[in-house]
Design a protein that fits this description.
Blueprint lengths: L2 E8 L8 E6 L2 E6 L7 E11 L2 E6 L20 H5 L8 H17 L2 E9 L7 H12 L5 E7 L10 H10 L4 E4 L7 H15 L2 E6 L10 H10 L6 E5 L8 H14 L1 E5 L1 H7 L15 H6 L4 E3 L16 H11 L5 H9 L3 H6 L15 E4 L4 H7 L3 E6 L2 E5 L10
Protein backbone atom coordinates (compact mmCIF):
# COMPACT_ATOMS: atom_id res chain seq x y z
CA UNK A 1 0.00 0.00 0.00
CA UNK A 2 1.03 3.59 -0.65
CA UNK A 3 -1.69 5.60 1.09
CA UNK A 4 -4.58 5.24 3.53
CA UNK A 5 -7.31 7.88 3.67
CA UNK A 6 -8.98 7.20 6.99
CA UNK A 7 -12.42 7.93 8.39
CA UNK A 8 -14.31 8.99 5.29
CA UNK A 9 -18.04 8.86 4.59
CA UNK A 10 -18.60 7.71 1.02
CA UNK A 11 -21.22 9.53 -1.05
CA UNK A 12 -22.41 6.26 -2.53
CA UNK A 13 -22.79 4.55 0.86
CA UNK A 14 -24.21 7.20 3.20
CA UNK A 15 -25.36 4.72 5.88
CA UNK A 16 -22.19 2.67 6.29
CA UNK A 17 -20.39 5.11 8.61
CA UNK A 18 -16.73 6.12 8.38
CA UNK A 19 -14.40 3.74 6.55
CA UNK A 20 -10.78 3.78 5.40
CA UNK A 21 -9.59 3.73 1.78
CA UNK A 22 -6.27 2.05 1.02
CA UNK A 23 -4.41 2.92 -2.19
CA UNK A 24 -1.73 0.95 -4.03
CA UNK A 25 -0.16 1.74 -7.40
CA UNK A 26 -2.64 4.52 -8.09
CA UNK A 27 -5.74 2.37 -7.54
CA UNK A 28 -8.06 1.69 -4.64
CA UNK A 29 -6.82 -1.53 -3.04
CA UNK A 30 -9.19 -1.91 -0.09
CA UNK A 31 -12.10 -0.20 1.66
CA UNK A 32 -13.13 -0.90 5.23
CA UNK A 33 -12.71 0.10 8.85
CA UNK A 34 -9.40 -0.12 10.66
CA UNK A 35 -7.04 -0.39 7.68
CA UNK A 36 -3.42 0.04 8.71
CA UNK A 37 0.07 0.08 7.25
CA UNK A 38 3.39 1.90 7.35
CA UNK A 39 2.32 4.32 4.62
CA UNK A 40 1.20 7.92 4.17
CA UNK A 41 -2.02 8.48 6.11
CA UNK A 42 -4.64 11.20 5.97
CA UNK A 43 -7.39 11.31 8.59
CA UNK A 44 -10.56 12.79 7.11
CA UNK A 45 -12.21 12.95 10.52
CA UNK A 46 -15.54 11.52 9.38
CA UNK A 47 -15.87 13.90 6.45
CA UNK A 48 -17.48 13.24 3.08
CA UNK A 49 -15.47 11.70 0.23
CA UNK A 50 -16.22 11.17 -3.44
CA UNK A 51 -14.24 10.10 -6.51
CA UNK A 52 -13.77 13.69 -7.60
CA UNK A 53 -16.09 16.36 -8.89
CA UNK A 54 -16.66 16.53 -12.65
CA UNK A 55 -16.94 19.59 -14.86
CA UNK A 56 -19.07 18.31 -17.71
CA UNK A 57 -19.35 21.61 -19.61
CA UNK A 58 -16.86 24.46 -19.25
CA UNK A 59 -15.27 26.84 -21.77
CA UNK A 60 -11.63 27.07 -20.70
CA UNK A 61 -10.60 28.62 -24.01
CA UNK A 62 -12.67 31.79 -23.61
CA UNK A 63 -12.51 32.20 -19.84
CA UNK A 64 -11.13 35.37 -18.23
CA UNK A 65 -11.74 37.79 -21.08
CA UNK A 66 -14.33 40.00 -19.38
CA UNK A 67 -11.78 42.81 -19.07
CA UNK A 68 -11.38 42.82 -22.87
CA UNK A 69 -15.08 43.21 -23.60
CA UNK A 70 -17.24 46.35 -23.65
CA UNK A 71 -20.02 46.60 -21.11
CA UNK A 72 -23.48 45.75 -22.50
CA UNK A 73 -25.73 48.64 -23.47
CA UNK A 74 -29.20 48.09 -22.13
CA UNK A 75 -30.57 44.75 -21.01
CA UNK A 76 -29.95 42.71 -24.14
CA UNK A 77 -26.69 40.72 -24.21
CA UNK A 78 -25.15 38.78 -27.07
CA UNK A 79 -21.94 37.20 -25.76
CA UNK A 80 -21.14 35.48 -29.07
CA UNK A 81 -20.96 38.70 -31.06
CA UNK A 82 -19.02 40.30 -28.21
CA UNK A 83 -16.35 37.60 -28.23
CA UNK A 84 -16.08 37.12 -32.00
CA UNK A 85 -13.96 40.25 -32.68
CA UNK A 86 -11.44 39.13 -30.06
CA UNK A 87 -10.69 35.75 -31.62
CA UNK A 88 -8.15 36.71 -34.32
CA UNK A 89 -5.84 38.16 -31.65
CA UNK A 90 -6.03 35.12 -29.37
CA UNK A 91 -2.73 33.25 -29.60
CA UNK A 92 -2.08 29.71 -28.40
CA UNK A 93 -0.06 31.21 -25.54
CA UNK A 94 -2.87 33.58 -24.55
CA UNK A 95 -5.49 30.84 -24.57
CA UNK A 96 -3.23 28.50 -22.61
CA UNK A 97 -2.49 31.10 -19.92
CA UNK A 98 -6.14 32.02 -19.35
CA UNK A 99 -7.30 28.41 -19.48
CA UNK A 100 -4.58 27.37 -17.04
CA UNK A 101 -5.62 30.01 -14.51
CA UNK A 102 -9.20 28.75 -14.69
CA UNK A 103 -8.14 25.11 -14.56
CA UNK A 104 -6.14 25.68 -11.38
CA UNK A 105 -9.26 27.06 -9.71
CA UNK A 106 -11.23 24.01 -10.85
CA UNK A 107 -8.57 21.76 -9.31
CA UNK A 108 -8.59 23.41 -5.90
CA UNK A 109 -12.39 23.14 -5.94
CA UNK A 110 -12.20 19.37 -6.33
CA UNK A 111 -12.50 18.66 -10.07
CA UNK A 112 -10.66 15.53 -11.22
CA UNK A 113 -12.43 15.06 -14.60
CA UNK A 114 -13.54 17.58 -17.18
CA UNK A 115 -15.14 17.98 -20.59
CA UNK A 116 -14.27 21.38 -22.00
CA UNK A 117 -15.91 23.02 -25.00
CA UNK A 118 -13.42 24.32 -27.61
CA UNK A 119 -14.48 26.76 -30.33
CA UNK A 120 -13.39 26.02 -33.89
CA UNK A 121 -13.81 28.44 -36.80
CA UNK A 122 -11.64 30.35 -39.29
CA UNK A 123 -11.16 33.28 -36.87
CA UNK A 124 -9.65 31.17 -34.08
CA UNK A 125 -8.49 28.28 -36.27
CA UNK A 126 -7.19 25.33 -34.26
CA UNK A 127 -5.32 27.50 -31.75
CA UNK A 128 -7.81 26.81 -28.98
CA UNK A 129 -7.71 23.09 -29.70
CA UNK A 130 -3.91 23.17 -29.64
CA UNK A 131 -3.77 25.13 -26.39
CA UNK A 132 -6.27 22.90 -24.60
CA UNK A 133 -4.47 19.78 -25.84
CA UNK A 134 -1.20 21.06 -24.41
CA UNK A 135 -2.90 22.01 -21.15
CA UNK A 136 -4.51 18.57 -20.83
CA UNK A 137 -1.12 16.92 -21.23
CA UNK A 138 0.60 19.28 -18.78
CA UNK A 139 -2.03 18.67 -16.08
CA UNK A 140 -2.75 14.98 -16.57
CA UNK A 141 -1.20 14.43 -13.12
CA UNK A 142 -4.24 16.22 -11.64
CA UNK A 143 -7.20 15.88 -14.01
CA UNK A 144 -8.45 14.07 -17.11
CA UNK A 145 -9.56 16.61 -19.72
CA UNK A 146 -11.74 15.72 -22.70
CA UNK A 147 -12.16 18.39 -25.41
CA UNK A 148 -15.44 18.88 -27.27
CA UNK A 149 -14.90 20.82 -30.50
CA UNK A 150 -17.80 22.85 -31.83
CA UNK A 151 -18.79 25.77 -34.12
CA UNK A 152 -19.88 28.59 -31.80
CA UNK A 153 -20.41 31.22 -34.51
CA UNK A 154 -22.21 29.05 -37.05
CA UNK A 155 -21.43 26.23 -39.44
CA UNK A 156 -23.54 26.44 -42.59
CA UNK A 157 -23.10 30.23 -42.68
CA UNK A 158 -19.37 30.24 -41.89
CA UNK A 159 -17.28 28.82 -44.76
CA UNK A 160 -14.17 26.97 -43.65
CA UNK A 161 -15.54 25.94 -40.25
CA UNK A 162 -16.46 22.38 -41.20
CA UNK A 163 -13.02 21.72 -42.67
CA UNK A 164 -11.40 22.81 -39.39
CA UNK A 165 -13.79 20.65 -37.35
CA UNK A 166 -12.88 17.67 -39.51
CA UNK A 167 -9.20 18.42 -38.99
CA UNK A 168 -9.73 18.41 -35.23
CA UNK A 169 -11.71 15.17 -35.40
CA UNK A 170 -8.96 13.54 -37.44
CA UNK A 171 -6.48 14.74 -34.82
CA UNK A 172 -8.37 12.83 -32.15
CA UNK A 173 -11.07 15.12 -30.75
CA UNK A 174 -13.41 12.64 -28.99
CA UNK A 175 -16.57 14.78 -28.81
CA UNK A 176 -18.33 17.05 -31.31
CA UNK A 177 -20.63 19.88 -30.33
CA UNK A 178 -23.02 22.34 -31.93
CA UNK A 179 -24.60 25.74 -31.35
CA UNK A 180 -27.50 25.84 -33.82
CA UNK A 181 -28.96 29.02 -32.33
CA UNK A 182 -26.15 31.00 -33.95
CA UNK A 183 -26.45 29.41 -37.38
CA UNK A 184 -28.51 30.89 -40.19
CA UNK A 185 -29.94 27.38 -40.70
CA UNK A 186 -30.12 25.67 -37.29
CA UNK A 187 -31.64 22.46 -38.63
CA UNK A 188 -28.97 22.08 -41.28
CA UNK A 189 -26.25 22.52 -38.67
CA UNK A 190 -27.76 19.79 -36.52
CA UNK A 191 -28.03 17.45 -39.52
CA UNK A 192 -24.41 18.04 -40.46
CA UNK A 193 -23.09 17.66 -36.91
CA UNK A 194 -24.90 14.33 -36.50
CA UNK A 195 -23.50 13.17 -39.83
CA UNK A 196 -19.95 14.07 -38.81
CA UNK A 197 -20.35 12.38 -35.44
CA UNK A 198 -21.45 9.17 -37.14
CA UNK A 199 -18.67 9.37 -39.71
CA UNK A 200 -15.94 9.80 -37.08
CA UNK A 201 -17.52 7.71 -34.33
CA UNK A 202 -17.56 10.44 -31.68
CA UNK A 203 -20.04 11.46 -29.00
CA UNK A 204 -22.20 14.57 -29.25
CA UNK A 205 -22.55 17.45 -26.78
CA UNK A 206 -24.80 20.24 -28.07
CA UNK A 207 -25.60 23.77 -26.88
CA UNK A 208 -29.36 23.83 -27.15
CA UNK A 209 -32.51 25.83 -26.62
CA UNK A 210 -31.63 29.07 -24.91
CA UNK A 211 -34.20 31.76 -25.65
CA UNK A 212 -37.28 33.69 -24.60
CA UNK A 213 -39.94 31.45 -26.19
CA UNK A 214 -40.72 27.78 -26.79
CA UNK A 215 -42.08 28.54 -30.27
CA UNK A 216 -39.06 26.75 -31.76
CA UNK A 217 -37.04 24.11 -29.91
CA UNK A 218 -34.13 22.34 -31.57
CA UNK A 219 -34.39 19.45 -29.11
CA UNK A 220 -37.18 17.96 -31.20
CA UNK A 221 -34.87 17.48 -34.17
CA UNK A 222 -32.11 16.19 -31.90
CA UNK A 223 -34.53 13.65 -30.45
CA UNK A 224 -35.55 12.49 -33.91
CA UNK A 225 -31.95 12.04 -35.09
CA UNK A 226 -30.82 10.37 -31.87
CA UNK A 227 -33.62 7.82 -32.16
CA UNK A 228 -33.19 7.32 -35.91
CA UNK A 229 -29.46 6.61 -35.65
CA UNK A 230 -29.69 4.81 -32.28
CA UNK A 231 -27.26 7.13 -30.57
CA UNK A 232 -28.83 6.88 -27.12
CA UNK A 233 -26.23 7.28 -24.39
CA UNK A 234 -23.92 9.24 -26.70
CA UNK A 235 -25.79 12.54 -26.87
CA UNK A 236 -25.73 15.35 -24.29
CA UNK A 237 -27.57 18.65 -24.55
CA UNK A 238 -26.43 21.65 -22.53
CA UNK A 239 -28.46 24.61 -21.25
CA UNK A 240 -32.04 23.62 -22.28
CA UNK A 241 -33.22 26.85 -20.67
CA UNK A 242 -36.46 26.76 -22.67
CA UNK A 243 -37.60 23.85 -20.53
CA UNK A 244 -38.06 26.40 -17.75
CA UNK A 245 -40.71 28.13 -19.89
CA UNK A 246 -42.89 25.01 -20.16
CA UNK A 247 -45.78 24.12 -17.85
CA UNK A 248 -44.90 21.16 -15.57
CA UNK A 249 -46.90 18.61 -17.54
CA UNK A 250 -45.22 19.58 -20.83
CA UNK A 251 -41.72 19.60 -19.35
CA UNK A 252 -42.40 16.22 -17.74
CA UNK A 253 -43.46 14.79 -21.10
CA UNK A 254 -40.31 16.18 -22.71
CA UNK A 255 -38.19 14.76 -19.89
CA UNK A 256 -39.64 11.31 -20.43
CA UNK A 257 -38.86 11.56 -24.15
CA UNK A 258 -35.27 12.54 -23.38
CA UNK A 259 -34.92 9.66 -20.94
CA UNK A 260 -36.37 7.16 -23.41
CA UNK A 261 -34.05 8.40 -26.17
CA UNK A 262 -30.98 8.26 -23.91
CA UNK A 263 -30.22 11.98 -24.16
CA UNK A 264 -28.54 13.48 -21.08
CA UNK A 265 -28.83 17.11 -19.99
CA UNK A 266 -26.25 19.45 -18.50
CA UNK A 267 -27.85 22.40 -16.70
CA UNK A 268 -25.73 25.55 -16.49
CA UNK A 269 -27.36 27.69 -13.79
CA UNK A 270 -24.92 30.61 -13.61
CA UNK A 271 -24.95 31.38 -17.33
CA UNK A 272 -28.65 30.84 -17.93
CA UNK A 273 -29.63 32.89 -14.87
CA UNK A 274 -27.49 35.74 -16.23
CA UNK A 275 -28.64 35.53 -19.87
CA UNK A 276 -32.30 34.60 -19.73
CA UNK A 277 -35.23 36.99 -19.25
CA UNK A 278 -33.51 39.98 -20.81
CA UNK A 279 -36.57 40.74 -22.90
CA UNK A 280 -38.17 42.05 -19.68
CA UNK A 281 -37.37 44.99 -17.44
CA UNK A 282 -39.35 43.66 -14.45
CA UNK A 283 -40.70 40.32 -13.21
CA UNK A 284 -37.69 38.71 -14.89
CA UNK A 285 -37.85 34.93 -15.40
CA UNK A 286 -35.07 32.82 -13.93
CA UNK A 287 -34.66 30.74 -17.08
CA UNK A 288 -32.90 27.71 -15.55
CA UNK A 289 -34.04 24.18 -16.35
CA UNK A 290 -35.05 22.19 -13.26
CA UNK A 291 -32.48 19.38 -13.06
CA UNK A 292 -34.28 17.66 -10.18
CA UNK A 293 -37.50 17.60 -12.20
CA UNK A 294 -35.69 16.13 -15.20
CA UNK A 295 -33.95 13.51 -13.06
CA UNK A 296 -37.23 12.50 -11.44
CA UNK A 297 -38.43 11.50 -14.93
CA UNK A 298 -35.33 9.44 -15.68
CA UNK A 299 -33.00 11.92 -17.37
CA UNK A 300 -29.30 11.69 -16.57
CA UNK A 301 -28.37 15.22 -15.48
CA UNK A 302 -25.25 17.11 -14.53
CA UNK A 303 -24.62 20.63 -13.30
CA UNK A 304 -21.64 22.58 -14.55
CA UNK A 305 -19.96 25.99 -14.66
CA UNK A 306 -20.05 26.76 -18.41
CA UNK A 307 -18.31 30.14 -18.49
CA UNK A 308 -15.95 31.89 -16.09
CA UNK A 309 -15.35 35.65 -16.24
CA UNK A 310 -16.55 36.32 -19.77
CA UNK A 311 -19.54 38.10 -21.39
CA UNK A 312 -21.84 35.08 -20.96
CA UNK A 313 -21.03 34.79 -17.25
CA UNK A 314 -18.97 37.69 -15.92
CA UNK A 315 -18.14 36.02 -12.60
CA UNK A 316 -17.33 32.61 -11.13
CA UNK A 317 -14.90 30.89 -8.79
CA UNK A 318 -14.97 27.42 -10.42
CA UNK A 319 -16.75 25.87 -7.43
CA UNK A 320 -19.13 23.19 -8.64
CA UNK A 321 -20.59 22.92 -5.16
CA UNK A 322 -21.49 26.61 -5.34
CA UNK A 323 -23.16 25.93 -8.71
CA UNK A 324 -25.29 23.20 -7.10
CA UNK A 325 -26.21 25.60 -4.30
CA UNK A 326 -27.14 28.26 -6.87
CA UNK A 327 -29.39 25.78 -8.64
CA UNK A 328 -31.03 24.92 -5.33
CA UNK A 329 -31.72 28.60 -4.68
CA UNK A 330 -33.08 29.31 -8.16
CA UNK A 331 -35.37 26.25 -8.20
CA UNK A 332 -36.27 26.62 -4.50
CA UNK A 333 -35.04 23.14 -3.65
CA UNK A 334 -35.38 22.03 -0.05
CA UNK A 335 -34.86 18.72 1.74
CA UNK A 336 -32.04 16.22 2.10
CA UNK A 337 -32.97 13.94 -0.82
CA UNK A 338 -33.14 16.57 -3.61
CA UNK A 339 -30.01 18.31 -2.29
CA UNK A 340 -28.21 14.97 -2.33
CA UNK A 341 -29.38 14.48 -5.92
CA UNK A 342 -27.78 17.80 -6.85
CA UNK A 343 -24.46 16.65 -5.39
CA UNK A 344 -24.68 13.48 -7.48
CA UNK A 345 -25.05 15.73 -10.54
CA UNK A 346 -21.50 16.90 -9.79
CA UNK A 347 -20.16 13.39 -9.33
CA UNK A 348 -21.79 10.00 -10.02
CA UNK A 349 -24.42 11.27 -12.47
CA UNK A 350 -21.81 13.36 -14.26
CA UNK A 351 -19.65 10.27 -14.63
CA UNK A 352 -22.57 8.44 -16.22
CA UNK A 353 -23.23 11.37 -18.55
CA UNK A 354 -19.59 11.30 -19.71
CA UNK A 355 -19.62 7.47 -19.93
CA UNK A 356 -16.78 7.08 -17.41
CA UNK A 357 -16.57 3.39 -16.54
CA UNK A 358 -13.58 3.89 -14.24
CA UNK A 359 -15.20 6.37 -11.85
CA UNK A 360 -16.08 5.63 -8.22
CA UNK A 361 -14.79 4.91 -4.75
CA UNK A 362 -14.59 1.17 -5.31
CA UNK A 363 -11.81 -1.40 -5.13
CA UNK A 364 -9.94 -1.54 -8.42
CA UNK A 365 -10.96 1.95 -9.57
CA UNK A 366 -8.42 4.77 -9.95
CA UNK A 367 -7.65 6.39 -6.60
CA UNK A 368 -9.25 9.73 -7.39
CA UNK A 369 -10.39 10.89 -3.96
CA UNK A 370 -11.78 14.22 -2.81
CA UNK A 371 -12.44 14.90 0.88
CA UNK A 372 -15.05 17.63 1.43
CA UNK A 373 -15.55 19.57 4.64
CA UNK A 374 -18.99 18.11 5.27
CA UNK A 375 -20.50 14.91 6.61
CA UNK A 376 -23.15 14.48 3.92
CA UNK A 377 -23.76 15.51 0.30
CA UNK A 378 -26.76 17.60 1.30
CA UNK A 379 -24.69 19.54 3.85
CA UNK A 380 -22.00 20.15 1.24
CA UNK A 381 -24.55 21.69 -1.15
CA UNK A 382 -26.59 23.59 1.44
CA UNK A 383 -23.54 25.17 3.10
CA UNK A 384 -21.19 25.35 0.06
CA UNK A 385 -18.59 23.32 1.93
CA UNK A 386 -15.16 23.24 0.22
CA UNK A 387 -12.87 20.33 -0.61
CA UNK A 388 -9.99 19.96 1.85
CA UNK A 389 -7.85 17.36 0.09
CA UNK A 390 -7.63 15.84 -3.38
CA UNK A 391 -5.75 12.85 -4.77
CA UNK A 392 -5.47 11.91 -8.45
CA UNK A 393 -4.56 8.26 -9.02
CA UNK A 394 -3.25 8.16 -5.46
CA UNK A 395 -1.06 11.26 -5.74
CA UNK A 396 -1.90 14.25 -3.54
CA UNK A 397 -2.77 17.24 -5.73
CA UNK A 398 -4.58 19.70 -3.44
CA UNK A 399 -4.47 20.67 0.23
CA UNK A 400 -6.73 23.25 1.86
CA UNK A 401 -6.54 23.95 5.57
CA UNK A 402 -9.84 24.35 7.41
CA UNK A 403 -10.31 27.79 8.92
CA UNK A 404 -9.31 28.14 12.56
CA UNK A 405 -10.85 30.46 15.13
CA UNK A 406 -8.38 32.11 17.52
CA UNK A 407 -10.46 32.32 20.68
CA UNK A 408 -9.00 34.63 23.32
CA UNK A 409 -7.91 32.79 26.46
Amino acid sequence: MDLIVKNVRRVGAPDEGPVDIAVADGKIAAIGPGLAGEVETYDAGGRLACAGLIETHIHLDKSRIIDRCPLPEGRRVNPVTTVAPLKPAMSVEDIYARAEATLKECLVNGATRMRTQVEIDPAIGLRGFEAIGALAKAYEWAIDIEPCVFPQDGLTNYPGTEELLVEALKAGAPVLGAAPRYDSDPGAQIDRIFALAREYGVALDLHLDVGDSTDHMDIRKVLELTERFRLGGRVVVGHMAKLSLMPPAESAAMARRLADAGIAVTVLPATDLYLMGRDRDHDVRRGVADANHLAAHGVTCSLSSNNILNPATPYGDCSLIRIANLHANILQVVGAAPLRELFLMLSEHSAKLLRLDDYGLEVGKPADIVVIDATSPEQAVAEIRPPLAVWKRGRRTVTRQPPELHVPS
